[in-house]
Design brief:
Strand content: under 5%
Order of helices and strands: HHHHHEE
Number of strands: 2
Strand order of the largest sheet: 1-2
Number of helices: 5
CATH class of the domain at 99-223: Mainly Beta
CATH topology of the domain at 99-223: Pectate Lyase C-like
Distance between the termini: 138 Å
């Protein structure tokens, strides 16, 4: 019986010592453990350590985010400016199409063989006594221009602005004047034979004083 108790005490003592060895790690044990590591223990600590010089403070993070936002805004504004410049360039091209011409410039170009004058501005130009054939004056501005005793034969003046123009004794035989504005123009003995006046605005004029023969007048607006 005594031997059994002694054996149990020895077993308990051995178990206690083993437990203490597992809990308490001395320098020798730690050194042996470090020798088994594939890397230096100092490297392990440094890999887990965070270098404060590489970190940004909360204020720096805010500044960085603001900088990114500013860059994004700047890029957006640049894109908008580029788009606006493109739109302005397009408008500039339209303005070139509505070129302002004097009567002399018009005659010089016509005599040189040019026939396309669509959307040119000939406001108040003196073009009387001319003989013009087959010219393109679509959308041209001829407001208050003097075309008296001229001939614009087989020409295209669709959508032209002829308000208050002097068209007395002018011939538009075979010409297209559809959708044009002839309000308050002078049409004394104006020859509109075979001309197209469809959907034109004739406010303030007396069309009865013009020469009307085989003239297209559908949808004209006399008021």
């Amino acid at each position: 019986m005594i031997y059994i108790l002694i054996a149990l005490l020895i077993i308990l003592l051995a178990w206690y010592l083993l437990a203490q060895e597992g809990v308490t790690i001395n320098n020798k044990t730690l050194g042996n453990y470090e020798k088994k590591l594939p890397f230096d223990s100092g490297e392990l600590v440094s890999s887990k350590s965070v270098n404060s010089s590489n970190l940004l403070s909360p204020a720096d993070n805010i500044q960085e985010s603001n900088a990114v936002e500013i860059d994004a805004n700047t890029s957006g504004k640049s894109l908008l400016r580029g788009y606006a410049n493109s739109i302005q360039s397009m408008h500039g091209a339209t303005e070139i199409n509505t070129l302002r011409l004097s009567a002399d410039d018009f005659l010089r170009r016509y005599n040189a063989g040019e026939r396309c004058f669509n959307e040119v501005d000939l406001t108040g130009a003196s073009l009387q006594g001319l003989y013009i054939i087959g010219v393109n004056l679509r959308g041209a501005v001829l407001r208050k221009a003097c075309l008296s005793r001229s001939s614009f034969l087989a020409s295209d003046l669709a959508g032209a602005d002829l308000r208050e123009a002097d068209l007395s004794h002018t011939s538009f035989v075979g010409s297209n004047l559809s959708n044009s504005n002839l309000s308050y123009a002078t049409l004394i003995e104006t020859d509109l034979t075979s001309a197209d006046l469809s959907h034109s605005l004739l406010q303030g004029i007396d069309i009865s004083r013009a020469i009307i023969y085989q003239t297209k007048m559908e949808g004209i607006n006399p008021s």
